[in-house]
Specification:
Number of helices: 8
Organism: Dimocarpus longan
Protein name: NBS-LRR disease resistance protein NBS1
GO molecular function, one term: ADP binding
Strand content: 5-15%
InterPro entries: Disease_R_plants, NB-ARC, P-loop_NTPase
Distance between the termini: 7 Å
Pfam families: NB-ARC
Helix content: 40-55%
């Protein structure tokens, strides 16, 4: 798509060291649909942020312990607020210094979560898309003349998506 996951990963990698615990929950939608639920993902998340193996997530103790820590959690490709509630409980249970980043295709999911700030990723303008394509497709800023026309056709087809 437009690069929501890539941007979230870049932010996560840059700031996760400033938190007591961090976790990047990749492809929440896929975990939910293909694996029939989120139990495994919830266990991994709680174990990672609390830095313990086999955390008892069935009790409210885990939720209270999450609230005492400064955490960074990324939920990637969320389709329903209930997925987040299942994974961590109420967003209110987290401490005030914790941060959650949510990527989604549906802005309404973010509205349902009551998020403080929404950043909408825009498609690249043609000039920037062309520069990015040259740099990663040809490992140079300007390909040979033979590839310029082809590159422009590829970008037209991609419609501004990286």
């Amino acid at each position: 798509g437009v690069g929501k996951t890539t941007l979230a990963e870049a932010v996560f990698n840059k700031i996760h060291r400033h938190f007591e615990g961090s976790y990047f929950a990749l492809n929440v939608r896929e975990e939910f649909e293909q694996r029939g639920g989120l139990n495994s993902l919830r266990q991994k998340l709680h174990s990672a942020v609390l830095r313990e193996k086999n955390v008892d997530i069935g009790t409210s103790i885990g939720g209270r312990r999450l609230g005492r820590r400064k955490l960074l959690i990324v939920f990637d490709d969320v389709t329903d607020f209930q997925q987040i509630e299942y994974l961590i409980g109420s967003l209110d249970c987290l401490g005030s210094q914790s941060r959650i980043i949510i990527t989604t295709r549906d802005k309404q999911v973010l509205n349902n979560c009551g998020v403080d700030c929404i950043y909408e990723v825009k498609e690249l303008i043609h000039k920037d898309a062309l520069e990015l394509f040259y740099r990663y497709g040809f490992k140079q800023n300007h390909p040979t003349a033979d590839y310029i026309k082809l590159s422009k056709r590829v970008l037209l087809y991609a419609g501004g998506l990286p």
